[in-house]
Amino acid sequence: MKRRLILLAAAAALGAVAFSGDRFWLQFLGKAMIGSILAMSLDLLVGFTGLVSLAHSAFFGLAAYLLAGLSNRFDLVNPIVTLPLCVAFAAGCALIIGWLSLRATGVYFIMVTLAFTQMLFYLFNDSPALGGSDGLFVKARPIEGRAAAYVAIWTAVVLVYLLLSRMLRAPYGRVLEGILGNEQRTRSLGYPTRRYKLVAFVIAGALAGLAGYLDATLHGFVNPAQLGWRQSGLILVTVLLGGKGTLYGPALGALLLAFIEHYGERVTAHWNALIAALVIAVVLFLPRGLAGLVPGTRRA
Amino acid sequence: MSLSLFVLQIVNGIEYGLLLFLVASGLTLVFGVLGVLNFAHGSFYMLGAYLAWWLSERTGSLLLAILLAIPAMVLIGVAVERLAIARLYARDHLSQVLLTYGLVLLFNELQRALWGNDVHGVRTPAALAWTMPLGETQTWPAWRALTALACVCIGVAMRQIVLKTRFGMRVRAGASNAEMVEALGIDVRRLFAIVFSAGTALAGLAGMLAAPLTTVYPGMGENVLILSFVVVVIGGIGSIRGAFFGALLVGLADTFGKVLLPGFASAIVYAVMAAVLLWRPRGLLGPAFEGR
């Protein structure tokens, strides 16, 4: 109950920022909320299904690049057309990569998703037609105006949260929980676990694509570093910092991390060392993340 | 492609593969024995290269720098194992990935703070600055030949140690069941520390040998890290023999990819990996250590 109040208050506060019209805060919090979408969707895999994927940034980047391509080459920006296209493209790529990666389990899965991410990174980084290492500008954006983009992002965060929490309470989510607990037992109960995992992988990939679409809309440009493995690592960090296996933890963790990054940058040029220290400290001393500090709430 | 160019590409591919083997063998050894997936392995490669550059500037000799840097790498390995990795043996892969990812960020920042963002060239020792002819038009630098030779020697030595010595027997036993080894009265903590620092030293040495060939630059470890992962996945995690064949395969695929399909060179290696995985999901020679 308390958790729901905190979430409502956070959502209302973030929504109210839209009316302030302050350019910096719209951009900053918009980016932070995109991080929330990424963290929540990755948590579906990491915290609820037990799949540690390093391919999440790839789907983010693929959707963003597709938007840039549609806008620059075909003058296609209308969100009614481009949004479903970009999200479906991310989902399709997730289907292929997931189908291949899920043949492997455990650490093999981690390494294979990592390898696919780097493959895509080099594909975009090395190819001048795809913008090379500089990336691409999105000349015309689907949603013009920062406040409008911010409202779209805010709506997306709320919808993604509601969708995922609904899904996890549904029978489908229960099966995922079974896979997390003991995959063999779930399989022996008659559930085709690999197909369940693949569906989760595709949904998470589609949501990462949504985040990428919104990011390209907000910033108006994409670059290959956004789909590299370090980005995937950072999303994993967000999930763990917030608390895997809870939806609100990673969602709020992304906001917290954005603030740490922003103010850390002001304090020292070596703020990456701060992030590194934070990551190491969380892994060693707070394995259940910040949500683990909240008593009595284990699952969303 | 002329014959001499073809031979040169084969030589280059094998040489690159051997260097990758040096890095990947440490990675696979640490995973096989300690059960830890170490993302910081690439950082050790980078540290080795930077130490080789920095010490050779100070001492004026690359060989002396390497002799000094190897013990330094061993010490770094022991420190990292004791302070961080040792706390993770009972934890899941996610914690290992994240902690070692944190170490990657830390080492990158350390490198930036100590040595800056410039690219540095490392000179090969004057005694090894000559080249040997290969066919009519191509040549093979002596340093490259020496690097390949060193990799082969280390590979053979590693095989002899793991298969023929008492210590190697403990390593193999630790890989198949660490708890049982401990129950038999062997100090597993010490064994793990030795294996981890050996892996660190192998990665560092590979960086030192590569420093004159590739120059020394920020982020050089990450490319090698990902390629070693590919090597290890192809070969089967935990298998040193698998890492050897995987490394040669990746080295040749990369070298020939650069000549035959220039735009897609980096992607070819991953295509090879995907093909191997479709055929054998646990790698060519895996699983040597089931259940870890």
Total count of helical runs of at least 4 residues of chain A:
12
Multimerization status: heterodimer
The overall number of domains of chain B is 1
Distance between the ends of chain B: 45 Å
Kindly describe this structure:
- The complex is a heterodimer of chains A (300) and B (292).
- With 300 residues, chain A is mainly α.
- Chain A has one domain.
- Helix content of chain A is 74%, strand content 1%.
- Chain A has a two-stranded antiparallel sheet.
- The radius of gyration of chain A is 19 Å and the shape is globular.
- The mean pLDDT of chain A is 88.
- With 292 residues, chain B is an all-alpha fold.
- Chain B has a single domain (3-117, 128-279), classed as ABC transporter involved in vitamin B12 uptake, BtuC.
- Chain B has eleven helices and two strands; from the N terminus they run ααααββααααααα.
- A two-stranded antiparallel sheet of chain B has the order 1-2.
- In chain B, a hairpin with a 3-residue loop joins β1 and β2.
- In chain B, α2 runs antiparallel to α3.
- Chain B starts with a helix and ends in a 13-residue tail after the last helix.
- The A-B interface holds A 46, 52, 54, 100, 103-104, 106-108, 110-112, 114-116, 118-119, 122-123, 126-127, 229-230, 233, 236-237, 240, 244, 270, 272-273, 275-280, 282-284, 287 and B 31, 37, 39, 84, 87-88, 91, 93-95, 97-99, 101-106, 108-110, 112-113, 222, 226, 229-230, 232-233, 237, 263-267, 270-271, 273-274, 277-278, 281-283.
